[in-house]
Write a structure and sequence with these properties.
Elements (H helix, E strand, L loop, with lengths): L2 H12 L14 E2 H8 L3 H9 L7 E2 L5 E3 L1 H15 L4 H13 L4 H52 L7
Antiparallel strand pairs: 1-3, 2-3
Helix pairs in contact: 5-6
Length: 163
Amino acid sequence: MSVSDTTTEYAAHDRKRPTAYVTTHAEKYSLEEVVRISGLDADTLGWYERQGLIEGAEEDPYGVRAYSPVHLRWLEFLNHLRSTGMSPADMNHYVELYRAGDSTIAARRDLLERHREVLRPRAAEFTATLRYLDWKIGFYREREAVLVRAAAAAASAPSAVEA
């Protein structure tokens, strides 16, 4: 496989990305923009930086940080990992593997596959809970409809005073 074939494969896979924070083509983003785009608060962003999960944000002479589209993609990925309950230690391990280069692709994939297997039972539980909530909501809608019909019937029935 040639380099151009590999690049084409990566590009095709990238088009399947389910979500993306980066919807503009700005080269730099301020802290406020990153907070707005990512949905993170500044404290969480700072925690990611202190943990070494993201790095390389530029600072101007006044200490104002500037983030790149690469930072936004990392934040999106890290947020997905965090939202699934991946431990900070595993997130750090993943980042270390990534920074070690392509020789760690199999290890990164293995880490994500193991984490996915931990999530599968939770996904099944979540689906079952959603089904139960849907049933309960349906129950209340039916009950409300019965009460509305009963109230309408009572309002249209002749009263004892009229008879």
